[in-house]
Amino acid sequence: MAVAVAERVRRHPGSGDTVLTVALVMVAAQLVWKFELVRRTYFRQDDFMFIARGLENGLTWDYLMRIDFGHLMPGAFAIHWAMGRLGVHNDLLAHALTMGLQAAAGLALLRLLWVLFGPRPAILVPLGFALVTPMTIPGLSWWAVVAETLPFQIALPMALASHVLYARTGRLRHALAAAGWAAFGMVFFVKAPFILVLAFVLTAGWLGGVARLRRAWLLHLGVLVPYAIVFFHRLFTSVQLTNETFEPRLPSPEVAAKSVWTLLSGSLVPTALGGPWRWQPIGDDYALAATPAPLMWAALAVAAVAVTVSVLWRRRAWLAWVTLLGYFLLADVVPIMLGRVEVLGPDLSGFELRYISSTAVVMALVIGLAFIPVLGEERPWRRPALRWRWAWVPLAAAVTAGSLWSVAAYADRPLGRNVKSYVQTAEQALAQVPAGSTVLDTYVADKVAFPPFFYDYALHSRVVGPAAPHRVVWTRRLAGPVADPLVFDASGRLRPVRIDGVTIPAPAGGGCTPVGPDAVRFRLPAPVRDAERTVQISYLNGAPTTLSVRLGTAGAEARAGRNLGVTFTTVTGGGGELVLRTLDGTTCVGEIRLGVPVADDEKPAVPPRPVGG
């Protein structure tokens, strides 16, 4: 077979140069095109949690091998660890890595197509598909997804290309390279073990059978078995953000069927043909596919025709499509079924393109296998070539036009601009306030990190705190005589705290109410329901003392310092009056506020204007 391949290349020595030149131009052009999208993105949601975890941990086994909701990705965790130490939220570095990985992924796919099919112009079609499909675009705009999937999109074609070379030449170095690339993929992405499954199918269908490649399968098992042992051990022992370990839960048959159908008909097939053409925004910086129903059915019809034509004319085209379907069901669907469908629902998970972004490389390979003869393949066609063999050109043009439209529609939103403004404003605020300032540690805006998903990793101290150039005092609740506490406002600026609720004014004339060991009752303007509230008490003391604060049946204590000041405490209760007494000494109490701490919009903000706002 190797002799036949060499002979074919020798007969057409110039064609390979032309194909290579065009392919490299295509890869470069898509980098320029996608950079216009990537440069407008910023970190979002999971990204802040991963960077914060990296800053909190060393490069330990437990840190790297923690499975995050089914994902084993020590390579990605290592990148997040390094990212946090290279500027915390260094989006320029993230963009550079994204484009570098994207370039490598395009060149890796080109190598696979070149090795498998030879330097023929036809390989530009599956290559072009992978370069322009909108299937990968949402994942390309999300750093956490980039760090997982793009290394996989490099590893898969590189591993398969090396495996093909081993099947043709029998040289052990190619088998070692294939196993090495597969292991590299497993370091980053949980779907990487399917690389070895694809190698098996490719060998059985197009490379002369599997029996003669025993050394390769032993090498692959040497990679796969240790990975499986580590994966399943860590899967059931890694503690998630919910403080629970993983428990596989399957959805009901109805939910599972709807999710599979939605992911196939509303996401995979339409995006393979240039869709989804319309998007459903999730905040400002992300969107799900929202394929219109008529276009969905049209895409299914076109796909059915393409599959039928290939099966009728191309030997083993059926195996290529079965391989794609099997990969889709096992690699894309099963992980979603084991937990995410119940949380997200079949519609949200079914239109989430990041679940199938890595499938674009597999689909490019399948398109090639279904329509292009493999080098050295005997009798590749069932029937003579069609008279209308260039009929694919209008389809390719339509798919390309649809892809450009879909990507432009996705990019027609703020993307990372608003999140970047919030985060950089908050980081600048921490840099400008005096060292030692007390900052109430609240949750960041939902658009940055959604608290119900990320819990304490959505707190300002976790998201923007690591970027502070000097020490600030973070507190979850105001307690004691805190001087000039600050809190973040809706745009990420720091402002003085104001207690929003009810106010018990100081006595007329600017005086104060003496409070000693005996209880003094302060009637509220209106009764309040049971809830957690912050109490702010102005006082004048001759000596430090401690106040007992009671609201209904709930009580708390508040330390008060010497002279004029303000103290805080938190009480969970309700009623119509606040009862104060001292535990030692006496004090004189002025204005009392009871409610929720918020940013005082009437006081000056730091910085005066949001960054980029």
Automatic annotation (TrEMBL):
Query: Which residue windows are transmembrane per the record?
Result: 18-35, 95-117, 124-144, 179-204, 216-235, 295-313, 318-338, 358-376, 388-411
Ligase as UniProt keyword: no
Q: Does the keyword Nucleotide-binding apply?
A: no
Query: What keywords appear on the UniProt entry?
Result: Membrane, Transmembrane, Transmembrane helix
Q: Which residues fall in a coiled-coil region?
A: none
> How is this protein named in the record?
Glycosyltransferase RgtA/B/C/D-like domain-containing protein
Q: Which organism is it from?
A: Nonomuraea terrae
